[in-house]
């Protein structure tokens, strides 16, 4: 819970600001190119639509892969914690091999999920490279067909060369920002958890104090202090 809040509060505004700046800068370059050479819109408009579709498709898939990775990471951390806490018992029982095999099993599951995410990123990057190559090829050869001047051709190639890095980075940054959305979901789910109706909580009282409700169980801490549970009484 604390990790999710910290991650979202620290990275949300910084990453979103950078993404918006890159998006505006890239769209401005494309707009200048279209205004200077209107026939470039024949390729620019479909490419923008393909970028949006790829982003939506990749976000849905990568988010589920990240969920699988998170689910496979929890048993690994739990196993490490349990092993460290019971290390003396494990060594006394000579069960080191069994725990080592369990660790390898959990680690393999988590590594597989991480590899799936890396493969999905490469899938997106490969298609972005192809789209950018198509755009650059059209911008480089279209001015020759339209009999543009050398200054216009040089200007368009310079603009698109700068824009290539932006067009490849914007979809990836948007997808990374969308991976912070599960942090919000986990935070919202934690806020809606129902309290245990059987007990109203932990209380610390002195032995001589008279409890307001019948005590069901308790344990002496030290001196005159006890830790006790009290049943919930409906009024």
Account of the protein in words:
- The chain is mainly alpha-helical and 235 residues long.
- The chain has one domain (1-195): ABC transporter transmembrane region fold (Up-down Bundle), CATH 1.20.1560.
- It has 6 helices and 3 strands.
- The protein has helices at 2-36, 41-85, 87-93, 96-145, 150-178, 181-191, and strands at 199-206, 215-222, 225-231.
- A hairpin with a 2-residue loop joins strand 2 and strand 3 (225-231).
- The longest helix has 50 residues, at 96-145.
- The two termini are 33 Å apart.
- It is a multi-pass membrane protein.
- InterPro entries: ABC1_TM_dom, ABC1_TM_sf, ABC_transporter_C-like.
- This is Multidrug resistance-associated 4-like.
Furnish the topology, listing elements before pairings.
Elements: H1 2-36, H2 41-85, H3 87-93, H4 96-145, H5 150-178, H6 181-191, E1 199-206, E2 215-222, E3 225-231
Antiparallel strand pairs: 1-3, 2-3
Quick structural overview:
The chain is built from six helices and three strands, in the order H-H-H-H-H-H-E-E-E. By secondary structure, it is mainly alpha-helical.
């Amino acid at each position: 819970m604390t990790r999710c809040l910290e991650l979202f509060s620290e990275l949300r505004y910084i990453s979103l600001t950078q993404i918006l700046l890159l998006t505006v800068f890239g769209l401005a370059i494309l707009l200048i190119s279209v205004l200077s050479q209107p026939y470039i819109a024949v390729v620019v408009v479909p490419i923008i639509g393909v970028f949006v579709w790829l982003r939506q498709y990749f976000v849905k898939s990568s988010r589920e892969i990240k969920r699988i990775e998170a689910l496979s990471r929890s048993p690994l951390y739990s196993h490490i914690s349990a092993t460290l806490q019971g290390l003396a018992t494990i060594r006394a029982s000579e069960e080191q091999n069994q725990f080592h095999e369990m660790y390898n099993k959990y680690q393999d599951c988590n590594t597989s999920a991480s590899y799936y995410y890396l493969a999905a990123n490469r899938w997106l990057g490969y298609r972005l490279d192809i789209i950018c190559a198509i755009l650059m090829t059209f911008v480089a050869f279209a001015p020759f067909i339209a009999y543009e001047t050398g200054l216009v051709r040089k200007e368009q190639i310079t603009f698109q060369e700068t824009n290539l890095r932006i067009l490849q980075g914007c979809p990836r940054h948007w997808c990374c920002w969308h991976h912070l959305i599960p942090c919000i979901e986990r935070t919202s789910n934690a806020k809606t958890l129902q309290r245990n109706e059987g007990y109203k909580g932990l209380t610390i009282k002195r032995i001589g104090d008279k409890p307001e409700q019948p005590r069901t169980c308790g344990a002496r801490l030290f001196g005159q202090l006890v830790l006790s549970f009290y049943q919930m009484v409906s009024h």
